[in-house]
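[SOLVED] Need 3D model of a two-part complex

Original post:
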Amino acid sequence: MRWKDRLHTWLDSRTGVETAVRNFLYENIPASSGWHQVFGSVTLFLFLTQAFTGALLAFNYAPTPGDAYNSLRYILAEVTAGRLMRGLHHWGASMMIVVVVLHMTQVFLYGAYKRPREATWMVGVVLLLMTLAYGLTGYLLPWDNRAYWGTEVATQIAAQAPVIGPYMVQLLGGQGEVGVVTFARFYGLHVLLLPPATLLLIAVHVYLVRKHGVAPEPGDEARPVKKFFPQQVFRDTVAIFIAFVILFVMAVAVRVPLEQLADPTDTTYIPRPEWYFLFLFQTLKLFEGPLEVIGSVVLPALAILALLFVPFIDRGRMRKVTQRTFAASLVALTAIGWGALTVTAVITTPKPAIAEQIDFSQPTDWLQLSPVELAGLGYFRQENCISCHNVADGKPKIGPDLAAGTHKSAAWMIQHFKRPSVMRPGTAMPPIQLSDSQLNTLAAFLLKLNPRNAEGLQAAPDFAVQGAIVYQMGQCGSCHQVNGVGVKLGPPLNGLKQRRTQQWVEDHFRNPQALSPGSIMPPYRFPPSDMEKIVAYLFVLPD
Amino acid sequence: MDTQTAPETSRRGFYLTFIYGLWSLIGAALAAPALLYLLLPPRVRRESEWIEAADVTRLQPRVPVEVVFRKNRIDGWKITSEKETAWVVKLSDQQTVAFGPQCTHLGCAYHWDEAKSEFLCPCHNSVFAVDGKVMSGPAPRPLDRYETKIENGKLLLGQLHQPARSKA
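Solution:
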């Protein structure tokens, strides 16, 4: 013990660190302090977590368009715990918005911004704006379609601002189009400029909180002050822990999507902002034509100004929170308004195109399969082959691993599917009840399967697999090519989405001659569900 | 005296236990994945590619030929196509080998000295026999070899390997 005490004394006399920590922890706080004041600490914790996970992501991330997307896919598919890191960073951003708003709501409800704490509040409002700026700049960094088109809209809105619009365009990298310069600027803001600026403002914010002390409630003067440590530190810790558990569970359980690589020529993509910007997106729709600038720039600017000057608008004396009914109604109204706008935005946004449901954060080898092979994957799933066979690593199952080793010939397989015990005496495998052509697709799929592509083939979405089955049943391959397989009598179908709209293709199926006079294609009257599947499949084919 | 302070101390102890305990959990839950993320090698989806390098039927017995071919190298999220070189020798009708192009001493490019029928490294005069064994000089081990296989008279090359020390 003695040497420990001496070490402490030595350290404190040289650095003052012990005294500083002591002063920090044993600060006086008012008797009314409690659970409602934990949100500031949670916000700080979440910010530091974002900085940590952000730095780790940067270790495996190439900040240029194109490479950004590939390196993110590398993080998600190949780096150990990479998906978790991205999950923490992605959901941490959303969570930070939630907690910042809770923090501000609490301060607002309690009137804690009143004299002499006006500056603390105003710095806080700037910190809120910076949090939103992280969201806006970080949104572009995956460089998928979602990122590209969302940012495209955001920069065009900035360009609408009266007077400063053109300067904003210059600042955001140019010609009103999102490109390499915009990307570099957003990345620079996100990782170089914003973090130190945030740290500085957090320091000022915390300094001001300490300088003025935690805001007391009326009646606190008569009651004895408390110490920050350990009771309030305990409360903060519990709140932080709860927030962290929620964040961690979300990062593990909720898959963060990655769409296809940003395609500036895509004319069908419907951009949507992150959920916390949806209310702005909806406000914009209320104003049309020349009034649009009111919804996009004027109203948000006024709202920010009003928020900033709250302490000067409400100059009344401190009251108990239960008596602040006007403030409470204002919060309730804002919440209702925000909720209504957000819900309307969610409801009225058209369903995303089926192709956007493909998760590009995992291997996509299935995109390279021919329709025969992909349809075979459909029967492979339908017949539930996976219950007795492995196709990738895992616990050994009763049947042999179908990806490993050399494959038998297609002819052997088809015979084996029909009468397993003839080809393999003593086998437990039941015969597969499918037609010859269906068994043929199954054999084609199995011939394609190997240990390297097994995972990427398993990831094929059902709509594409079903679409390939419809393609096979319609024998489209006798006149068309997909991925280089089929007959070149009609046009190859890769790149169809660049040439035609989905509606055109549907109409063309029903009556080819009406749209392509002279075409020898017979009409196809698919049932609606088959029509949807085959069109969706044709529109996800690689170019 | 104890009646007054005992609940007070035990409540303080309760707070401290939770503060230290919960922060340790948070720290561990962040540090463990971070260490895995940084220290474990990424899961490589390596294509075990075999690259066609030479026509075996055209090789003269025990006359090395320098062949140049292109190979995909996986570097993080990038796949780059690179030029690579190998010295191919048909040692016998059953055995054709391909040597890596660098001297096993310090990585200089060696060449075939036709007059003496040996590989000579110009940097520090390491000399290798036609089968890659070290004849003289500072080279610590025989020439590195590519995995090879022959299909339809074509020589296919795989990964470059150092020969096991015991064999040579």
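Edit: The two ends of chain B are 84 Å apart (CA to CA).
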